[in-house]
Design brief:
The protein is an alpha+beta fold. It has 3 domains: 3-124, Aminopeptidase (3-Layer(aba) Sandwich); 132-302, 3-Layer(aba) Sandwich (Aminopeptidase), CATH 3.40.630; 309-405, 2-Layer Sandwich (Nonspecific Lipid-transfer Protein, Chain A), CATH 3.30.1050. 30% of the residues lie in helices and 33% in strands. It contains 13 helices and 19 strands. A 12-stranded mixed beta sheet has the order 1-2-3-4-5-14-6-13-12-11-10-7, sandwiched between helices. Strands 17-16-15-18-19 form a 5-stranded mixed beta sheet. The protein has a two-stranded antiparallel sheet with strand order 8-9. The chain is globular.
């Protein structure tokens, strides 16, 4: 059964791949074709079995924040196979070739949202962050008294509609436009949440200004006196058996008053909608402003990371400026021999220095998969030792590594988008 990994030979093969995406995810075929085109045909890779297009994936150039610094990430999207080719090693071959291609590009991390774990673990991925869905009961949204008093004293904010159509999504935001200011708010907020994307244009187009090709509505939260944008949100509405549902697709604010305006906007829907959803974890700071338990949060997906280059990945992310730590990692990597080594790590002044060490020296021993949740701050080396996924008899070394990679951003690594 000859298996070939290839770049599509023109738009027709990209559309054929999109139709497999539609079948795998139960999407409308035309929507899937448009969705793949929105991300860009240059991202698509296909796998052929005996010359027949059996499936494919997308390799999307992205960046993700860890420790306040953006790290290069290859987003692996829409990994699909026709049903008759599943369970025959085709998926593993597809992922292996995609990882080899990504490693040659020099990008230190790869990431994906898995439908199943074993096939991706076989390619060196491990769970390293979350995407959560929080549901609000709208008629119960009230601000804490001290927050309410703070924002009532500040009446100088207005909600300004964000114009959104095909022409807006196709254009680069003009300097000084509300679209550029909205992106500026996100750029200020995102580095404070580990796992957030440093969004390129195609993420804004496909995930924020539209979602699964459905146009969103948006408002900027504007300071009346200066015109400064202090926050924004995008949402969609739909009707189901329970009535109207509000789905927040994205929201970011840089002041308490802006967050309060956003929460009041949701609350004001109570007469026509019972609930709203927003893709954030329970520890999101905006939820701390609420007076009562009016939300419930569930895990939507645990995304995975693959460390493509141990030295580059550890050196690329940021660290707390007060962290001083030294330790060694003995990494096993069956796919990339360059990673398979002992690595000495020294961290100071918010930066890491990584060099090759001796295999005879004490080190935290782990597979490259286990390095992903450590690097992201999702799990500590000591926790992975308890699970049998890391070995080390030196508790001081485990503590040093835990201190270095500890999530100082106030929440589990998370992102609201999906690629």
């Amino acid at each position: 059964m000859p298996i070939e990994y290839a770049t599509p030979r023109g738009p027709n093969e990209c559309d054929a791949y999109a139709r497999i995406v539609a079948e795998a995810f139960a999407w409308d075929p035309e929507m899937a074709i448009g969705w793949v085109r929105d991300w860009g045909h240059a991202c698509v890779r296909v796998v052929l079995v005996d010359g027949v297009l059996a499936g494919g994936l997308q390799l999307i150039p992205l960046q993700t924040y860890f420790g306040g610094r953006a790290v290069g990430l290859t987003g692996v999207g829409a990994v699909v196979l026709l049903p008759q080719y599943r369970g025959k090693g085709v998926g593993k071959a597809l992922m292996r070739e995609a990882m080899l291609e990504s490693q040659r590009s020099g990008v230190p991390l790869a990431g994906l949202f898995p439908a199943t774990l074993p096939v991706y673990r076989s390619a060196g991925f491990e769970q390293a962050g979350v995407r959560c869905e929080t549901t609000f009961t709208l008629n119960q949204i009230k601000l804490r008294p001290e927050i309410d008093a703070l924002v009532r004293a500040d009446r100088g904010l207005s909600l300004v509609p964000i114009h959104n159509d095909e022409s807006v999504r196709a254009a680069v935001p003009e300097p000084g436009s509300i679209h550029e200011k909205v992106r500026g708010v996100y750029a200020r907020v995102a580095p404070h949440f580990d796992g957030h994307l440093a969004r390129p244009d195609n993420v804004w187009r496909t995930q924020i200004y539209a979602f699964k090709r459905e146009q969103t509505k948006g408002f900027a939260i504007v300071r009346d006196a200066t015109g400064a944008v202090e926050g924004y949100f995008f949402y969609t509405q739909s009707r189901g058996d329970g009535g109207i549902h509000v789905a927040v697709r994205d929201a970011a604010c840089v002041t308490p008053g802006a967050w309060a305006a956003f929460l009041r906007f949701l609350a004001d829907h109570w007469s026509t909608a019972r609930e709203a959803t927003w893709m954030v974890p329970a520890e999101h700071p905006a939820l701390s402003m609420l007076a009562e338990h009016c939300t419930r949060t569930k895990l939507s997906a645990a995304w995975m990371l693959r460390v493509m280059d141990v030295k580059a990945a550890i050196e690329a992310r940021g660290y707390g400026p007060s962290v001083r730590a030294s330790f060694a990692l003995r990494v096993r990597d069956e796919l990339f021999a360059a990673n398979h080594a002992t690595w000495k790590v020294s961290i100071a002044d918010g930066r890491a220095n990584v060099s090759k060490g001796s295999d005879a020296e004490p080190a935290i021993e782990l597979d490259v998969r286990a390095l992903s949740p450590i690097l992201s701050g999702y799990q500590s080396p000591a926790a992975l030792r308890l699970a049998g996924l890391a070995c080390c008899d030196d508790d001081a070394m485990l503590d040093a590594a835990a201190t270095a990679f500890a999530n100082g951003r106030g929440s589990t690594p998370w992102m609201g988008e999906i690629y």
